[in-house]
Amino acid sequence: MNFEHLIPILASTVAAATPLIYASLGELIVERAGVLNLGVEGMMLAGAITGFAVANQTGSLTLGFAAGMGAGMLLSLLFGFLTLTLQANQVATGLALTLFGVGLSAFVGRPFVGQVVDGLKGFAIPVLSDIPVAGPLLFRFDPLVYASLALFVAMQWFLNRARGGLLIRAVGESPSSAHAIGYPVIAIRYLAVVFGGAMSGLAGAYLSLSITPMWVEGMTAGRGWIALALVVFATWKPWRVVLGAYLFGGVTILQLYAQGFGVRVPSEFLSMLPYIATIVVLVLICRDPRTILLNQPASLGRRFHPDA
Amino acid sequence: MLKLEPRQEPSRLMSYASPLIAVGLTLLTGYLLFSLLGKDPAQAFYVFFVKPLETRYGVGELFLKATPLMLCATGLALGFRANVWNIGAEGQLVVGAIVGGGLALLFQDVQASWLLPLMLAGGVAGGMAWAAIPAFLRVRFHTNEILVSLMLVYVAKLLLSYLVHGPWRDPEGYNFPQSRMFQEAALLPVLMEGVRTTWAFVIALLLAGLSWLFAEKTFAGFRLKVSGLAPGAASYAGFSEKRNVWLALLIGGGAAGLAGVAEVAGPIGQLQPAVSPGYGFAAIIVAFVGRLNPLGVVLASLLMSLLYLGGETAQIHLTLPSAVTGVFQGVLLFYLLAADLFIHFRPRWSAARPAVVAKATALAGGDAV
């Protein structure tokens, strides 16, 4: 394989990783606040269909992406209301959110099967994109790819340096202490949950408006769950989320290219790779229970009831 | 203002009333949804919930679709009680179908009566083996069984897709991705003339009964329950968490595998790329709506089966996409989870809070999932 082949592979790896980065970074904030939202897959699907439908009807990609985020936020609010206000079990509610998202998106999306939109295209940054090798590799992506990296930088700073980020971590580690000092634990968790919803919605819209600009029922194909696994893989650290997302993007793309290059393995087995890789990665990270104990937000998945 | 006050004891009344409230609210939502879609709600309700059951065949279909739901949910409920979250029943179902169906294809010339029991046993073993993967990885490597069992759903579906597109494809099937039709001896007999319901429904009912005995009358069932309700007490009593994880996943996987083989040896009669419209996932809802209780699961699976049937009838008679079933399933679970609040809390209008309650709340605050 020579270099000419490598550049498109690397470039599509970046594209495949981008929705994972959004969804995982969103869920990372949610989990850092001590909330486990297993509904990422459902929120991504809602974002995918809403984004696609709005872009298809209005012709505006910006509106589409905004609507996708909005759909994710709405579903996450529902999750927040059930788990934070009504104290429902987070695991069960997250599963419900995914099942609901799958059903709702299939229902709403029926008229949009087979429709098209003009998807988000890469944008060649003048001058820089003409640099050989580095140009096509670094400077010809769509704006949301760069935005995902900006989000990562912002989040790295936010969680370690900003007051708000430290507050979220405090709430996730010990909600009762944060409450005792006088911080509004539930409100902070709501904000985190809604942010996670917006990012999942955006990730879904990126799938239906950029990677494959169309709507297919269940088109996330487990990416929401992979995003959840990435957060564990990342031991709740943003930089490792990005690393993991690129790794998974690579696995996804490699299996596509392997099929293209005529590797003599049935395509189904190649398609299994991302799922099996997820399991392998989970095993590697969780093998030593201390890794999880030291890094997992201490109150993750637990209810907190500030007052009756 | 309206305050929530923790109850001293969980309300038994509410724990039974809450599924009914949830069903009622789901119907109300359905009413609104149908009105919004410009359908006459009364007619829509009739088409959804009554029309499917007007014929004997229709009632048979109700039991037919309830069978895999009941099997999967019975197994899942045992695990959920112990806080073992097997959400990969769909994958275990598919592997059960692969192993059971594979045996039918392997012995395609056999007309003997031992074939069917062998297939059923194979299906159970297949489902168990698939569920053993998350069990082993959790016990040995502390991985989360939710993520692992779910990832394996995709792997199982791809495996089935490979088999019916490749080595197991019917050579005389005009290149359709499906296996040969199974011979008579590899098919579950139907309960009576004129319906498609097979004896698997009776097996599912028996298993629900057995699982009630297991959960309520055996020490192993008691250990499962305690580990779910009070993990601390369970470990203090020396109940092995590992044994519970294994038990919960193997039972859940075995039951789902049986559901899978019962589908291919029943209404489907061959292997094809899709052997389930998501029964394994819907069973999660069934388990919750059924209060993780075998009798409740039986009733809930009939209700969920009616939702599937109603969705199909609505597609034909109301030109509604059958995906509306998925929406109702999700909505039902949401309402249930919300209504469950009142099992542990009571709403109360109050201006000031008695100090005792404040203290009780502080103690109860931050309890485990």
In short:
The complex is a heterodimer of chains A (308) and B (369). With 308 residues, chain A is an all-alpha fold. In chain A, 73% of the residues lie in helices and 0% in strands.
Structural account:
- The complex is a heterodimer of chains A (308) and B (369).
- Chain A has a single domain, classed as Orthogonal Bundle (ABC transporter involved in vitamin B12 uptake, BtuC), CATH 1.10.3470.
- Helix content of chain A is 73%, strand content 0%.
- Chain A contains 13 helices and no strands.
- Chain A has helices at residues 3-32, 40-58, 61-85, 90-109, 134-138, 143-161, 163-173, 175-181, 185-211, 223-233, 238-260, 267-286, 289-295.
- Chain A is globular.
- The model of chain A has no long low-confidence stretch (mean pLDDT 86).
- With 369 residues, chain B is mainly α.
- Chain B has 15 helices and 2 strands.
- Chain B has helices at residues 12-36, 41-50, 56-81, 89-106, 115-141, 145-165, 200-217, 219-229, 231-236, 241-268, 279-289, 294-317, 324-339, 341-344, 355-364; strands at 2-6, 345-349.
- A two-stranded antiparallel sheet of chain B has the order 1-2.
- In chain B, helix 3 packs across helix 11 (279-289).
- Chain B is globular and about 75 Å long.
- The mean pLDDT of chain B is 85.
- At the A-B interface, helix 4, helix 8, helix 10 and helix 12 of A face strand 1, helix 6, helix 11, helix 13 and helix 15 of B.
Describe the structure using short key phrases.
A: 308 residues; mainly alpha; ABC transporter involved in vitamin B12 uptake, BtuC; 13 helices; B: 369 residues; two-stranded antiparallel ribbon; 2 strands; 3% strand
Helical/strand content category of chain A: mainly alpha
| C-alpha termini separation of chain B | 27 Å
The CATH topology name of chain A reads ABC transporter involved in vitamin B12 uptake, BtuC
Question: Which CATH C-level class of chain A is it?
Answer: Mainly Alpha
Instruction: Please write the CATH class name of the largest domain in chain B.
Output: Mainly Alpha
| CATH-scheme architecture of chain A | Orthogonal Bundle
Beta-strand level of the residues of chain A, as a percent range?
Answer: under 5%
Strand element count of chain B: 2
- Radius of gyration of chain A over all CA atoms, rounded: 19 Å
Q: Give the number of DSSP strands of chain A.
A: 0
Architecture (CATH level 2) name of the largest domain in chain B = Orthogonal Bundle
Gyration radius over CA of chain B:
22 Å
Summarize model confidence as the mean pLDDT of chain A.
Answer: 86
What is the succession of H and E elements of chain B?
EHHHHHHHHHHHHHHEH
- What's the structural domain tally of chain A? 1
The first-to-last residue Cα distance of chain A is 65 Å
What percentage of residues of chain A falls in helices of 4 or more residues?
A: over 70%
Strand order in the largest sheet of chain B: 1-2
Unreliable stretches of chain B (pLDDT < 50, length at least 5) are none
